[in-house]
Amino acid sequence: MSRGYDCISHSPVELDIGIQQLHQSHKDRSAAKIDARAICPLEVREVTFAAWPSILLRQLFASRTPFSFFLRQCILMCRGSRDEASTALFPLPFPLGDVWCRGPEHLGVSQRSRLAVRRSLYLAIAALNFMHFQCPLKVISGLWRCPGPLHAAVHARLIALIKASGPAGKFSFLSCGRKAHQLDARLKELHEALQSLGFDEGSFYKRQHEGAEVKPRNDKDELRPYRPLDASRLKLSGKGSWDCGEHLSDLLYMPFVEPRSNQYDVVPPAAVLPDMSKVSAEETLRLCKVWDAQGLLRLFPCALGPMHSWCYTKVFNNFKSAQVDRQIGDRRGQNLQKEG
Hints:
Blueprint: H1 12-24, H2 29-36, E1 44-47, H3 52-63, H4 66-77, H5 109-132, H6 149-165, E2 171-174, H7 180-196, E3 226-227, H8 250-257, H9 281-293, E4 314-319, E5 325-330, H10 332-339
Antiparallel strand pairs: 1-2, 3-4, 4-5
């Protein structure tokens, strides 16, 4: 389920319009695909709990994960008349009513809050079913059966947890991008450390545990997103041939065609510069061959290269899958000089 989620600059009204379009374009997946990728750069946002489920749904669609596909199918396929109730707990059915068929734009404050709770309940039920079954797509039809007394009790419990966790006023959130797995691991490490110290007991506020060790959990590749340069694992898809100059304003066009026009005589502090001492010349040569295969390599005399070592860019790997990695470049020295 967990992936890197970017913040989405869409209002709840726009979300509900998008959901309605999603229903109408079930056969035309391209429209839904474009809508799901409408993302904006990383930013801190303030939202209310009433708007949070709508934003979360759009972020999930943009993540393009197995869970987001499962959730999309739930919204598209759970329609029409309900099947008979069942006594089996799973698949846990959705509550009665369709929470995505209309938007909150004409609702009052209390009605918006109730709709947010019902939408949060819908997302929680989808997540529980996704985690419970090895092949969740096969049980989607069972999610649209009528809920029985047992299911109603589970719904009531989930609603109570949602209401207890939902903040009354506005709250801020920041997406963590490609570090989502790493952030999740660090939080789990902290949680386990607190439990091992007895912090889950009633008297934990009185305990003192200075210098307690938090054991790292790096047992999965996703928890180590950044690795030393390994050119054999890099996957480069583009060829850098798109000229975006015609789309740039005058303010941005000059730095685009001549980046040195935006440089200043500012020496960055050594503490913020990447460590170039462990860069392998052999691996760098392999990286050049990867660039050359994509038509991205250009060779210039040393006299035309960077005058200072803090202008160098350190290239390293960022985990993408078990087979390939992304390419990341650490150019803090150049960026800090331009900010100066």
